[in-house]
TrEMBL record:
UniProt domain Rhodanese: residue ranges: 60-158
Signal sequence bounds: none
Superkingdom of source: Eukaryota
InterPro entries assigned: Rhodanese-like_dom (IPR001763), Rhodanese-like_dom_sf (IPR036873)
UniProt source species: Drosophila madeirensis
Pfam families for this protein: Rhodanese
Name listed for the protein in its UniProt record: Rhodanese domain-containing protein
């Protein structure tokens, strides 16, 4: 049971480390027979961060995909960044797992490949990070988060937030 909790905690880490001896264990484990020499690595790719300048150029870079993960009613109130497609956070995994034909018919864009640069955004950057993590779990490798998201875009473009 304890090992299971440790492995779950390790899943979220992005750096490698090793358990080498039982001498530096917490007091609750001091009497246990746990001694391991094993390295754990996260298989989740690092998620990059992009800024306004990168997103502004995306209209001229159709090989990259900008996904707005806000709900459709939010887009109705605020508008959206040009060249972005809307896939709400709750269905990102489902849509990125869809067949290429279905994706194309819904979004008017080719379904991204594992190596396609995908940039996610939302209102402030939190949901978009979750979407990028979900895409990483599906095997996508070139993922970015527009940390300022719509709030930053609207401010720089002189639009209402």
């Amino acid at each position: 049971m304890l090992l299971r909790h440790c492995l779950l905690a390790l899943r979220g880490t992005r750096t490698a480390f090793s358990l080498q001896t039982a001498t530096n264990l917490p007091a609750c484990l001091a009497g246990s027979s746990l001694v391991a020499t094993q390295r754990f690595y996260s298989s989740v790719p690092a998620i990059g961060i992009v800024n306004y300048d990168v997103v502004k150029k995306l209209a001229r870079e159709p090989q990259k995909l900008l996904i707005d993960v806000r709900e459709s009613d939010e887009l109705t109130k605020t508008g959206q960044i040009p060249s972005s497609i809307n896939i709400p956070l709750g269905i990102v995994s489902q849509e990125l797992s869809a067949s290429p034909e279905l994706f194309q018919s819904k979004y008017g864009r080719e379904k991204p490949q594992a190596s396609t640069e995908i940039i996610f955004h939302c209102m402030i950057g939190k949901r978009s990070l979750k979407a990028a993590e979900a895409a990483a779990a599906l095997g996508f490798k070139n993922l970015k988060n527009y940390e300022g998201s719509w709030t930053d875009w609207a401010k720089r473009e002189g639009l209402p937030k």
